[in-house]
Amino acid sequence: MSDSKSKRDNLFANPLGAVPGFVFDQAVVDVFPDMISRSVPGYETIISHTGELAARFVQPDTNCYDLGCSLGASTLAISHRIEGRNANVIAVDNSPAMLEKCRLILASDSTTTSIDLVNSDICNIDIYNASLVVMNFTLQFVPVEQRLGLLEKIYRGLNPGGCLIISEKLSFKPESLNSLLSELHHDFKRGQGYSNLEISQKRDSIENVLVPETLDNHIQRLRACGFQSTSPWFQCFNFCSLVAIK
Ligand code: GEK
Q: What mean pLDDT do residues 7-23 have?
């Protein structure tokens, strides 16, 4: 997202002693665009192609869901590509600080698409008449035992031919491969200006908060929900985006 007022992320630059678990609070909101673009390789590509996929899949008079919308980057990419279709975007996040800033960003945008902002856990919302559901880097924060139920609900709420986009950090087997992909990611972060201290404190902070799964795991679970057509369309190191078509 191009937010020129986003501050540089230096939340983990100084030694923190006991590193607290990661939360999406005001301090994170203030640096979020900088944090996510310097931490997730391919983030901008995934967001812009979310818009391209919306242009292909969103049908007139249907709903599009952006689950874990943060500051609305995916919401806006979608909204700009579906104007004139009488489709609604429903953008959901359970962080009040994120939603408050998101509301300001959307208010200053020119899109004519109708957008509802919903402050809720994505596991507790209704999904219906959907032609597109997007979870860009959100499923990884949902407790593992709730992921199947959430995906089953999404499958039920999608219209036939509807599309689910899931972007995630992945884990790999065996452990040697996991270490390689993780080190390549850390090299990327160093290239983006993060120090070794920032990288290691952030890793400690998201441990048990962001729980990655293997690509195999994601695909098996999507199949178990009923999605027969599913494939990664993007991967860079240990970050991947998948499409699943109902
Ligand atoms: C983007 N999609 O810019 N219910 C609702 N929201 C949640 C939940 C939940 N159970 N768990 C986490 N969140 C965005 C980026 S960020 C990814 C998504 C990241 C929200 C959380 O508050 C945060 O705003 C977002 O999901 C994850 O494309 O920071 O790595």
A: 86
Cα separation values, 49 from 136, 234, 241, Å: 11, 10, 10
Q: Has residue 197 been placed in a domain?
A: no
Kindly state whether residue 129 falls inside one of the protein's structural domains: yes
Nearest atom in ligand 1 to the alpha carbon of residue 98 is 24
Range of the domain at 215: 43-171+209-245
Q: Terminal CA-to-CA distance of the chain, rounded, Å? A: 29
Q: How far is the CA of 69 from the centre of ligand 1 (A)?
A: 6
| pLDDT tens digits, 36-94 | 999 999 999 999 999 999 999 999 999 999 999 999 999 999 999 999 999 999 999 99
Angle between helices 26-39 and 43-57 (to 10 degrees): 90
Kindly report the protein residue whose alpha carbon is nearest to atom 21 of ligand 1.
68
* Residue closest to 42 by CA, chosen among 107, 111, 136: 136
This prediction's pTM:
0.96
